[in-house]
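Structure, all two chains, one model.
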Amino acid sequence: MVLEQYLRDRLQHKDLLLMTHVVCGYPSFEDNWRELEIMADFGVDMVELQFPFSEPSADGPLFVKANQQAVADGVRPADCFEFMKKVSDHFPFKVLMMGYYNTAFKMGHASFIKRLSAAGGCGYILPDLPVEEAGELHQLSQSKELAPIVLMTPTNTDARLKILGAAAEGFIYAVARKGVTGGQTEMGDDLKAFISHCRAHSNLPIAVGFGVSQKADLDFLRGKADIAIIGTAALKAWEDGGEDTLRAFFSGLLD
Amino acid sequence: MSLFDFADGREGYYGDYGGTFLPEILATTVEELRLCFRSCKEDPAFWAEFVELMRTYSGRPTPVSYLENLSNKLGGARIFVKREDLNHTGSHKINNVMGQGLICKRLGKKRVIAETGAGQHGFATATMAARFGFDCKIYMGAVDVARQRPNVFWMENLGAEVIAVQDGQRTLKDAINECLRDWVTNMGDTHYVLGTACGPHPFPEMVSFFQAIIGKEARQQIVQEAGKLPDRVYACVGGGSNAIGIFQGFMDDNVELIGVEAGGHGPGSGLHAARLAYNDASVGVAQGFKTYFLQNDDGNMLETHSIAAGLDYIGINPILSDLWEKDRVRFEAATDEMVRDTLKLVMRTEGLIPALESTHAFALAVAEAPKMGKDEVILINQSGRGDKDIFTVADTIEDDHWKQFIKDKAVEYGA
């Protein structure tokens, strides 16, 4: 698979890769572009472009607000694909679609896959689509070499992790804790045990997200996981002070 | 016919609708709930315990009343009403809530959360939590908090914490999103008491299971009171729990079943919550399940409106979507205006005060009864009582004495 190979190549030279997140059209596509330029400057390896949805029930307050504002501003999936095309043409990092299943369902599975591929995306993350319901979409993804990203969580049983591992491609998205995006996560023995649990059920690179927000978190993850996922923390930095604050945030993170 | 004989690999599906679409973090919790519910459903002692609880605590069985004055006035079918308004807390919501309270106890959980629209489900859940000794948090859209203060008052005084949800349209769907966010965080000790037959499997089946008590009672009672089965059964449909509750009593009979949605300002207005009766809804996946939603071409949800907060919902019971497609249930809508007129009529002719939600079912029955024969029988599910709607109703009919009372109260409170 394209994405998995890309990550393995990058991991030859870096001990911990970075995936970041942008909500399309929030605060604006222009702001998104400037955020992405900074992320590229700091060598980010992958970016999730979130397609705004009116019912973002797995997101915390900051992303909820971002989704709602973008929907209210009239940001449509077509705008997001157009933006994704520009981003994937211009930047060296890989781009994934992130969003809720209804966006893909409503446009039709085949159309979703075709448009995602045409926009240069290399995978998608749909947190409210369980693997049992993802059969057709996963199958369609294969011909376009798109990676359906599967989430593993600390509440999953071994039997469930086995099923998830079998369905996963590209990398494993390991959810570091219960809850929605944006809260605090304790980087400790439980998380360490959970990551090795994920490893036991998949040979793919492991990305850890939910509450990863500072240098200490990355230091903790180094040697345990392959990819750190920075979501809310980067948007918060942008909201706090735009370009300068976001640069300072990444400097601190990667210091 | 059983609605719940699932084909292999299709558990939780009713035709194309239903399913479980939740974040992975909830998979274990939902599986645990599913297994617990299965064992309860298969255990006759559990149903007996539930019926006994409802008898001694909620006043079941609720009666069926004959509306002789209204029937004579309309000059058509004889009209009977199943009186779910006479339940403790004033609506059918308590059936599901007490049932889920028993489930919660079996799960060994100590905390319950619930969404609420009109406030009836929140009120019922707060009551159940007080009775069972659970901690309780109710999520309610800020718009609904503003228009349903009496229910908020009771929830708080029953010991529940009421959170006014400020996201989105600040109504029922946003309260559901907030419940899901709470649940993905606190599933270890918390049961989510979903209030209607929507959401991910097993909720539609579980809520239908408890609400079936309405139909079981009603079938026996109507035969006794009317001397025959009804020709038509009318129920309002928001999420669709009271409707599936009463309809289940008549699934195998030659009885026409009519679901009445919130027509709001009417077709084409964009201000309604009629998913099946009007042409604005399409199939989608949100809030954990697949059904007809009022959504745009991108799959983002539309604004909804109803005079009745409890009907103001974007999606619909997946079982009813399937029964509608199979022509087993007919769907109609009653506009706000029809509801206002019908409420006045029912109050004056029969001394009944149905909730604005339930009045939707009355409105269609009142419209259709005159065209039916005198030997025909109508059964309406009065899912709740309307005294909770006193502010909305008083506003609508512009009652001067009420306005003066509020002004005097405001002065008394130093406004």
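The two ends of chain A are 32 Å apart (CA to CA).
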